[in-house]
Specification:
The complex is a heterotrimer of chains A (315), B (257) and C (285). Chain B has 257 residues and is an alpha/beta fold. Chain B has ten helices and ten strands. In chain C, α3 packs antiparallel against α8, α6 packs across α8 and α7 packs antiparallel against α8. Chain C is globular, with a radius of gyration of 24 Å. The mean pLDDT of chain C is 90. The chains are: A mainly alpha (315), B alpha/beta (257), C mainly alpha (285).
Chain lengths: 315, 257, 285
């Protein structure tokens, strides 16, 4: 059999079994893994923290203000002498500005996406696509400046009875800001459509426009819709543009020429003021924050679900 | 009678519950070159990766059966897998040197074992580069990035890197398939040199290479069920001139694969 | 005109409209920048950078806001980067494909979409009140860290994912432990991508206004912060403050401050692009 000396074999295999050094090493590895796991869990803790903070302050609020009044009272005047706690005006304000924003961004963003995906040459695309991303990188306070000091005066010339603070300027400016959100995500969706579909349509004699509208867009529809929803969510959560340009007057209206107040702007208003912590008036920002959080949560989850579903389809 | 260094007993590997290779029992002799051949998809690489427990890195993989190294089951729960990989080294199909200097590539293995002394590392680096027949070509540029080397040189560097942990066995997964013929020849010559000191197990889809280089050959084949099995194992001479199994003969004579 | 020609014409018209739409946003941006430059360039001067805010526009400067930003951003990086990179490493290199991992990933995705002002509310209750940090630079930095964490984690994960599997395999086959593989081989290669992600995340933080207002960063600060526990303001808040005033003089000051902010952003993003270019040259696979 030609076996080597027994003792050598025993030593060599003995070292293979886990000795002290190996155990120390394994404990060290476990410690590192635990640390990294904890870091990853911070995201879960953050979400729990947000929900906890909102509830801890909002629940006492709802003990004093009934849910019915909160949802149905058409007036929001917590800082006045005669207090009303109906959130509808704030929600209406948020809805109005967001609707204007999305109404602008949807067609412009989608058309940009179609152009970049179906028409533009790779070189043009390489320049225009990152250029559009710049729009998303401009701080919102700069957009707010633009909305109040440039867009509003401009619009006043066209619409004479436009108030200085109004939903239209803020909404349009927000719209410009979220164009890249829609164009980027829609373009990803259009890009993911397999070229074999396009080629089949071209082979049947369709023009580029027909291929884009009749074949590619329907195939990418869920991704496009998801981008709209995410853009809407972004508009709902936007603060500075509306705080600067849309006004601080909670108004239950659908007229974009008027001043309103959004949920986010209200929170800023109170934060800048001197309402003492722990009072009912101060707690209003948490009740409003809770509603804001829930609305964006629902929108985001719907969009995430849609995105995951369409990624599955083209696997 | 050959001394056996590695042995598998009824080895089966499952990916996601489905067997990829099944019931493999073979013995690898010490300081010989053993080639594993077979058509693509028959599980050669899967088998090779069992010897140094690289299949552990695939979460969906499950291994049953035994893999014995010097008589000790590598998959038993008290085995230190880090030590296993130091003693059983591996060279991959596509050369994968670290994007660091040539020196640092070879020194990595000893460094993570705790060897810090600069002179000891210098000595190890030179010894291994010489053993891999690369020293003369790189001795003046040890601190140059390894990626500046040619494909063949990079593969020899990977061999030198594997040698630096003083293994007893070298596993080679199609080491020359990404290389040109001249580089391939250099690798084959190198293998024969190395076989004087190390046990070599090589997976190759190139039959001529197996016939040229190896002392023993194992022929694997996946059946209709796409499960790889060991069909025949024996001295290379015998496998290529008087194969016992019909399927081996068909593969050797090029009827498929 | 034949049917075919009509379709072609429609196609060309559409292409023109689509191109116009694509360029529309850029034109608006150009218009915005020109407007800011028009109002703000004349305001830029050394005294603008070194004066405190004032009731008189001609004397108002961004000294305290600039210093506040210079304090808050590096502190934010100090908290966010190790946490974000660690989380990314866990998710890419260690995490098993199970429900808990899914939950963590879902959380990160969701947090990326939470309005920044909600982070302000969290920061107010957690850092300012519960941890008694008051309205300090520290509280602001912690709040911003949580805000940019999802961006950092996502960017770092991508950088880690770009490292080829073959590199890890080679290191494992030499007897390295998982952490050794990550520390010695994966991280050095992923580092440029992680750095780029970090710069991108910080350039987001530098423009954030709402969460800092909510945690109580003041809008009128007339001193230099000396420690992380001092009260503070930042550039975007100063801009907000001046824009909200009726006097045109303050609007010009706001424009000037915007120019400074945009200059900072430009350099940060330029740095990120340069680093990405350099790293692509180094690791030619």
């Amino acid at each position: 059999m030609g076996l080597t000396a027994r003792s050598v074999v025993e030593i060599s295999t003995a070292r293979l079994q886990r000795g002290m050094a190996a155990r120390w090493r394994e404990w060290g590895e476990l410690a590192v893994q635990a640390l990294l796991f904890f870091a990853a869990m911070v995201s879960v803790f953050t979400t729990i923290g947000i929900v906890a903070v909102l509830l801890v302050e909002a629940l006492p609020f709802f003990q004093q203000v009934s849910l019915k009044e909160f949802l149905l009272d058409p007036q929001w005047t917590p800082l006045f002498a005669q207090k009303h706690f109906g959130i509808m005006p704030l929600v209406a304000g948020t809805f109005l500005t967001s609707a204007v924003a999305v109404a602008l961004a949807m067609p412009v963003g989608l058309l940009s996406a179609i152009y970049l995906s179906e028409y533009a040459s790779p070189r043009v695309r390489a320049v225009l696509k990152p250029a559009l991303e710049i729009l998303a990188g401009i701080p919102t306070v700069v957009y707010g400046y633009f909305a109040l000091l440039t867009v509003t005066p401009l619009l006043k010339r066209i619409i004479p009875d436009l108030e200085t603070f109004n939903a239209l300027s803020a909404g349009l400016t927000m719209g410009v800001m979220i164009i890249p959100l829609i164009s980027s995500l829609s373009e990803d969706a259009l890009y993911a459509v397999p070229s074999s579909l396009r080629e089949a349509a071209y082979a049947l004699g369709a023009t580029r426009l027909e291929v884009a509208v009749r074949v590619v867009i329907p195939a990418a529809l869920s991704g496009i819709v998801a981008s709209f929803i995410l853009a809407a969510s972004r508009a709902v959560g936007e603060t500075m543009i509306v705080a600067i340009a849309a006004g601080q007057r909670p108004t239950l209206t659908l007229d974009p020429r008027r001043a309103i107040e959004t949920m986010t702007a209200y929170i800023v208003q109170v934060s800048l003021g001197d309402t003492p912590h722990g009072t009912l008036e101060f707690r209003t920002i948490f009740a409003v924050g809770l509603v804001l959080f829930l609305i964006t949560l629902v929108l985001n989850l719907i969009a995430i679900r849609i995105i995951e579903r369409y990624r599955e389809v083209y696997r | 009678m050959e001394e056996i260094v590695l042995e598998t007993q009824n080895l089966t590997v499952y990916y996601d519950g489905r067997p990829a290779i099944e019931g493999i029992s073979m013995k690898i002799p010490r300081r010989r070159i053993t080639a594993i051949i077979g058509p693509s998809g028959c599980g050669k690489s899967t088998l090779l990766r069992c010897f140094n427990r690289m299949n552990d890195l695939i979460p969906s993989a499950r291994v049953t059966g035994r893999v014995l190294f010097e008589g000790l089951d590598l998959y038993s729960s008290d085995v230190d897998v880090v030590e296993v990989r130091r003693r059983i080294g591996m060279v991959f199909q596509k050369p994968n040197p670290f994007p660091k200097s040539i020196y640092e590539n070879v020194a990595f293995g000893p460094r993570i074992q705790g060897i810090r002394d600069r002179r000891k590392l210098d000595e190890i680096v030179e010894r291994c580069l010489r053993a891999a027949a690369l020293w003369d070509e790189v001795k003046d540029k040890l601190h140059q990035n390894a990626l500046t080397l040619s494909g063949g040189q990079q593969q020899r560097l990977c061999i030198a890197r594997a040698l630096a942990t003083e293994p007893e066995v070298l596993l080679m997964d199609e080491p020359a398939s990404a290389l040109d013929p001249i580089a391939t020849m250099k690798i084959e010559d190198l293998m024969r040199e190395l076989a004087r000191e190390y046990t070599i197990v090589i997976v190759t889809h190139n039959m001529q290479q197996a016939a040229r280089v190896s002392d023993y050959t194992a022929f694997m084949l996946a059946g209709e069920d796409r499960v790889g099995r060991l069909i025949e194992f024996g001295p290379t001479q015998q496998i290529f001139t008087r194969p016992r199994d019909r399927r081996t003969e068909d593969y050797i004579t090029g009827r498929f694969g | 005109m034949g049917h075919r020609q009509r379709r072609e014409l429609l196609g060309k018209l559409f292409e023109g409209i689509a191109l116009a739409a694509t360029v529309f946003g850029l034109l608006v941006l150009a218009f915005l920048l020109l407007d800011v430059a028009r109002r703000g360039l004349g305001v830029l001067s050394w005294s603008f950078l070194t004066s405190y805010p004032s009731r008189f526009p001609e004397q108002a400067g961004i000294r305290s806001a600039l210093l506040g930003t210079v304090w808050v951003i590096p502190l934010t990086a100090l908290f966010a980067v190790p946490l974000g990179v660690a989380a990314a490493i866990y998710l890419e290199e260690y995490a098993p494909r199970n429900r808990l991992t899914r939950l963590i990933e879902l959380n990160i995705n969701n947090l990326a979409g939470v309005p920044s002002i909600i982070y302000g509310l969290l920061g107010l209750e957690l850092f300012v009140r519960a941890m008694r940090l008051e309205r300090s630079i520290l509280a602001g930095a912690l709040t911003l860290s949580l805000l940019i964490l999802p961006i950092l984690i996502t960017a770092s994960r991508e950088a880690l994912r770009a490292v080829p599997m073959s590199l890890r395999e080679a290191a494992f086959a030499l007897g390295a432990t998982r952490w050794q593989v990550i520390r010695h081989q994966v991280l050095p290669v992923a580092f440029p991508g992680i750095l780029t992600g970090m710069i991108l995340a910080l350039s987001r933080a530098i423009g954030e206004t709402a969460p800092l207002i909510t945690i109580g960063a003041l809008t009128f600060i007339a001193f230099d912060p000396k420690s992380p526990f001092d009260k503070f303001t930042v550039l975007p808040i100063q801009i907000f403050n001046w824009v909200s005033r009726p006097q045109a003089g303050f609007h010009a000051r706001a424009a000037g401050a915007i120019l400074v902010l945009l200059a900072a952003l430009l350099s940060m993003n330029g740095l990120a692009i340069y680093l990405r270019y350099r790293s692509q040259r180094r690791y030619q696979w």
